[in-house]
Amino acid sequence: MTTVAHPTTTTASPPAPKRGLRLTPAALIWPAMLYLILTTQVPFFMTVYYSFFRYNLVIPDERPFIGFGNYASLLTNPQNLQVVLNTVILAGGTLILTLLIGGAMAMLLNRNFPGRTLLRTLMISSFLVMPIVTAVVWKNMLLNPVFGFFSWVVASLGGQPVDWLAQYPMASVIAMITWEWTPFAMLILLTGLQSLPDDQLEAARLDGASPLQEFRHIVMPHWTQAIQVVVLMETIALLQVYGEIYGSTSGGPGLATTNLPYFIYQKAFAEYNIGLASAAGVITVILTNILAIYLLRMINRTNITNKGG
Amino acid sequence: MTTAPARPAINHAARTRGRNAVLTVITYLIAIAFLFPLVWMFLAAFKTEAEAFASPPVFVFTPILENFQNALPSYFPALKNSLVAAIGSTVLAFVLGLPAAFALAVYPTTRAQGTLTWMLSTKMMPAVGVIVPLFLLFRNLQLLDTLPGLILMYTTMNLPLVVWMMHSYMTEIPFAIYEAAKVDGASVAQEFFRIALPLSTPGMAATALLAVIFAWNEVFFAVNLTSSDAAPLSVFISSYKTSMGLFWAQMSAAAALTVLPVLIFGWVAQRQLVRGLSFGAVK
């Protein structure tokens, strides 16, 4: 992270303006803070509050306090365990694939060849596409068992047509989201590679380092921070995947592709079970924050080691 | 961001050159594979419905514009909503975020650093953690299916981005300029309007572009807080996931019209993308 400190101003308060608006730094910060508190922190505490009640919008007048009842029914139902597992598999699987493909692509693009800049620009396209467009295009035009492009490829190679979303639902969704997020990994990892000073590599080559040694001892340590940023940002985003599932499988078949966000959407907006949806929301927030805080610590530790070394 | 000069390929031996050529071909192949779904979609937008459904697929055809004409009547209201929501939320996020970014950059204290981190941490709040009370609140305030409601949510999404990015641009303004202004008796407001804002215009453009892209592409709040009157493009496109999914060519035309502006924005701003996406953590 960039920390820029201006040494002269840590204690200096602004001079009192002679006339006109009295603006202090605090007065400039408060509107933004207040807005974020009102739209994120307050609703979250309301979510926590609702999660302790049996609260269904179909019977809004009866709202008994049931303590941890919603959490208990969430955590004891084995079906819900699958939803949590789906969330982790979806995020983890996509993360690993985007790191591998994005990393390879970053190394390939970090060379001099004709059309390099154009290719790099075009490669970011799938990240810019609206998730719901990705979903409907993949579902209809690529993964369709009869007319889909991928089925035609399989058939022309002599295979049987495949109903991707029915037979391999999770793998299909992961493929789709990997397609979307690989450019992100590529972009961040490429920037990381480009900030590697040339002289370090030259020196290693002069010392007779093999390409593998060069990669392990020079590129990798330098690359760590970029990799960690990808892991952190993608983890937060991928735990929240919603549009792609909403637009393609609707969580099915069965529960095969239902992750926590989609599950909460179903509980709240199809079953009107506000209490249960709130409890699941709280669990998602806790899960995201545990992972994010752990990853942030890791990044900060690397930052300190890098600066010290 | 510094543009690192491309590392000169080491062409000492013909063998390295040969290996490089192979790697370049591989790079092109991967890039083509990645672009294929989009190319396929854009092609289908110009096909007849029969050609779009054809198996084996049709690669050569006479392009038509009929699909665009058919998609437009329902596209325009959604486009209007998307534009208002994206631009409205970006403007509101700037109004709230620019002064905060300025104060945090020009008067940095230990608390300021904490405030900055806290703002970023609101991005770790999954939308599902707040959607239930917000939905109920919106229902009581009659904000469901309204553009002001959508703008309020997108502002929440974009505000930390604006504060964080503008903070990083404003710290790059040489501090001596502020000090000179102070000596001349400039007030905080004058420093903000006369120095910080004019000197960070390029940063503002990049930040605005990113904020618009994020709001444009958002699905979760759009699906759950709007239905018809305020439905943006993401909701319009999702109507093709069910019954309308039978019209592939028309769906492709609608999707093309939806993603093209964002693609162009993103290509233009690709260098700034890195900064915005990683919150300046990688440069």
Automatic annotation (TrEMBL), chain A:
Superkingdom, natural source: Bacteria
Main location: membrane
UniProt-listed Gene3D superfamilies: MetI-like (1.10.3720.10)
Protein name: Sugar ABC transporter permease
Keywords, in A-Z order: Cell membrane, Membrane, Transmembrane, Transmembrane helix, Transport
Subcellular location: Cell membrane
Membrane-crossing segments per the record: 28-52, 83-109, 121-141, 147-166, 173-193, 274-296
Native source organism of the sequence: Deinococcus aerophilus
Pfam families assigned: BPD_transp_1
Listed InterPro entries: MetI-like (IPR000515), MetI-like_sf (IPR035906)
Topological relation to the membrane, as annotated: Multi-pass membrane protein
Domain ABC transmembrane type-1: 84-295
Family, per entry: Belongs to the binding-protein-dependent transport system permease family.
TrEMBL record, chain B:
Listed InterPro entries: BP-dep_ABC_trans_perm, MetI-like, MetI-like_sf
Pfam families according to UniProt: BPD_transp_1
Stored Gene3D superfamilies: MetI-like (1.10.3720.10)
Domain of life: Bacteria
The keyword Transmembrane helix is assigned to this record: yes
Signal peptide: none
Principal place of residence: membrane
Annotated compartments: Cell membrane
Family: Belongs to the binding-protein-dependent transport system permease family.
Name this polypeptide is given: Mannitol ABC transporter permease
Organism: Deinococcus aerophilus
